[in-house]
Amino acid sequence: QVQLVESGGGLVQAGGSLRLSCAASLRTFSNYAMGWFRQAPGKEREFVAAISWSGDNTYYANPARGRFTISRDNAKNTVYLQMSSLKPEDTAVYYCAAGPYSLRGVSIKISVSYDYWGQGTQVTVSS
Prior knowledge:
Blueprint: E1 4-7, E2 10-13, E3 18-24, E4 32-39, E5 46-51, E6 58-60, E7 68-73, E8 78-83, E9 92-100, E10 116-117, E11 121-126
Parallel strand pairs: 2-11
Antiparallel strand pairs: 1-3, 3-8, 4-5, 4-9, 5-6, 7-8, 9-10, 9-11
């Protein structure tokens, strides 16, 4: 059974940093593109960042670009999201997701492209 388990969320002041981790029980983690999405109360789930199966290509939503960094360690079956300069509008539940290795470009930014999802971790940024 595939499991994605996020950790690292919490309460942080505006301007602070957090690093989210997502540990995956995928048989061949390196065969999957990985993404981070978030959902704020009353809003739809939105794309945050993604990384190709090899780690060679990364993708960011405009609000995340320049502040967030996605990375992966295929030896540890883990994907990370380093978040800095956090703002109150970053408050949301953050989800990691795993999708086919072929994801890239537009497809890697779309939630329906992903096959597996974690339960989410809450990030709250106070002003």
